[in-house]
Structure to design on (323 residues):
């Protein structure tokens, strides 16, 4: 049995508790949350012991699941890693780049596993297409949500856009060449809406818009490449592929268009999207990577890379506001 402790039992921590309870081979030892009201309801609902000293809980477990607000991620991760414990930490991995670099170093020295909660990697709409031959040259991203004070201790870049940054970095096998960004703080002290252009060495360009002050929700990534368009709707959990007709693809809806080079047949298909619980799947894979001594699905280096791009974006926005 892998012994787990949950640090932070708020909105996301409770989702984690629900899922850990369903995962085989795991023993939930207890949770740490400084909020008395939250702690009381969690103890009652989950029949789980509350610890008021994080170190005491840390001593009793094999792995820490950290779902506290982002500004506490580093100190809790550091405590866990110093004590030789594996770590699952919610996104973004840390708050500052100094913290992220230090954590990567500590994880390596302690030889423990760390997985970052970039849960969109497990979104069924993404799983349905991620193993296709993806080589996007232009990427259009929209992540829009209504305002919610939760998560506003950090900017919309670290709160929402970081999900898309991680997905893009997992798809584009090239280094970031340049970042352009604009953002506005409307409801909080940090950018609530931002538009970003990321240019890669291989010529790929990603255009991202993230907002936490929109009237309607949207979470879409559109990939354009030499022979195809791939649309991924993370909210509706649907994917779409439009490409030149592949004779093996019998399921696709097709139509003809006239071009200068003759008639081309276009095929439209919707890959099968499996019914997957993304949070359960990411936690299960974290557990498996510990048991099988394998790399985690989203490593501390992935977490650092996403943070690095996010911080470049934040610097560009700050400069554009100052000038
Ligand atoms: N992966 C995702 O899609 C996703 C979605 C939402 C939030 N998150 C991340 O999860 C984290 C938590 O967000 P949330 O929405 O659950 O917030 P929340 O405010 O609902 O919950 C945070 C909980 O942590 C507790 N807490 C405060 N200080 C703590 C400390 N020092 N140690 C332990 N617990 C502490 C609070 O009392 C609260 O109960 C954030 O880092 C956020 O970015 C990820």
């Amino acid at each position: 049995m892998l012994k787990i402790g949950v640090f932070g039992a708020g909105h996301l921590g409770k989702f984690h508790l629900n899922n850990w309870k369903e995962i085989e081979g795991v023993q939930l030892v207890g949770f740490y949350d400084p909020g008395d009201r939250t702690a009381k309801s969690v103890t009652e609902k989950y029949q789980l012991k509350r610890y008021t000293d994080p170190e005491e809980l840390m001593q009793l477990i094999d792995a820490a699941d950290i779902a506290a607000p982002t500004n506490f991620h580093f100190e809790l991760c550091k405590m866990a890693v110093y004590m030789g414990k594996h770590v699952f930490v919610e996104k973004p991995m840390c708050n500052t780049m100094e913290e992220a670099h230090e954590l990567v170093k500590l994880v390596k020295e302690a030889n423990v596993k760390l997985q970052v909660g970039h849960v969109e990697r497990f979104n069924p709409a993404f799983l349905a297409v991620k193993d296709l031959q993806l080589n996007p040259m232009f990427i259009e991203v929209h992540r829009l949500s209504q305002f919610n004070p939760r998560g506003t201790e950090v900017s919309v870049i670290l709160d929402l856009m970081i999900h898309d940054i991680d997905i893009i970095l997992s798809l584009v096998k090239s280094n970031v060449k340049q970042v352009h960004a604009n953002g506005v703080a409307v409801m909080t002290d940090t950018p609530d809406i931002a538009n970003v252009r990321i240019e890669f060495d291989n010529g790929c360009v990603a255009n991202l818009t993230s907002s936490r002050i929109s009237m309607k929700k949207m979470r879409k990534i559109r990939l354009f490449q030499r022979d195809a368009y791939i649309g991924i709707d993370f909210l509706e959990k649907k994917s779409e592929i439009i490409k030149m007709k592949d004779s093996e693809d019998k399921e696709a809806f097709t139509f003809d268009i006239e071009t200068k080079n003759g008639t081309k047949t276009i095929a439209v298909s919707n890959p099968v999207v499996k019914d997957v619980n993304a949070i359960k799947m990411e936690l299960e894979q974290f557990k498996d990577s510990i048991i099988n001594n394998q790399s985690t699905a989203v490593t501390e280096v992935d977490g650092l890379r996403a943070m690095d791009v996010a911080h470049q974006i934040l610097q560009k926005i700050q400069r554009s506001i100052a000038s």
Residues 63 and 86 are 4 Å apart (CA to CA). Residues 7-13, 32-35, 38, 67-70, 72, 76, 90-91, 117, 119, 150-151 surround nicotinamide-adenine-dinucleotide (CB under 6 Å). The two ends are 56 Å apart (CA to CA). The first strand starts at residue 2 and ends at 7.
